[in-house]
Known about the structure:
Helix content is 32%, strand content 27%. With 249 residues, the chain is an alpha/beta fold. The protein has 3 domains: 39-106, Ubiquitin-like (UB roll), CATH 3.10.20; 108-160, no CATH class; 161-249, Rossmann fold (3-Layer(aba) Sandwich), CATH 3.40.50.11690. It starts with a helix and ends with a strand.
Amino acid sequence: xxxxxxxxxxxxxxxxxxxxxxxxxxxxxxxxxxxxxxxxxxxxxxxxxxxxxxxxxxxxxxxxxxxxxxxxxxxxxxxxxxxxxxxxxxxxxxxxxxxxxxxxxxxxxxxxxxxxxxxxxxxxxxxxxxxxxxxxxxxxxxxxxxxxxxxxxxxxxxxxxxxxxxxxxxxxxxxxxxxxxxxxxxxxxxxxxxxxxxxxxxxxxxxxxxxxxxxxxxxxxxxxxxxxxxxxxxxxxxxxxxxxxxxxx
Length: 249
């Protein structure tokens, strides 16, 4: 009886050792195949419009071992970078054993103001929070002139005063709703807010009743086509509904 137990124990150890040896050999073969046959030869970038393909590649493939496609994919999955300019998130996948694809999801700047020192642009999102502080000037992004941001930090409130932030967002919401082409808005030191659409300079005056003032524009601007001048809305209120157009001489 004792001999049978010893024999069975020996057989178990024999099979266990063989299984472990097989797993080790298989692991070595797979590792070798990955090292020698999965070298990165092609990198494709998708979804980027702000940063160039070269910039994205330089930010994402920073490790010396990223020359291996499998390693680059796994490393970026486990330890993705969070400091790539204008990039909300990204994903690295293998299209083939030698081809990597970097899928980029970009941040969507809603507008920007200048920095206090004048050496950068502070981009904000639809919620009024800072998205990015960058030296890069993006085209076709709404610009706020006359206000500057001091000590702006990503994910924090745009530092131009909460009342100004609310006014900016209200202006953009209204002009977008009405489909107006307005590239920028200007905040003057005396509190006057103006912007240009086509050949018309719109003077909104102060922020008082600003949403209501903006909602009058779709009814007025079509009547001023092919004309140039200043549309005065600064005195408009529920009690005073007069709107004056000062034609350019």
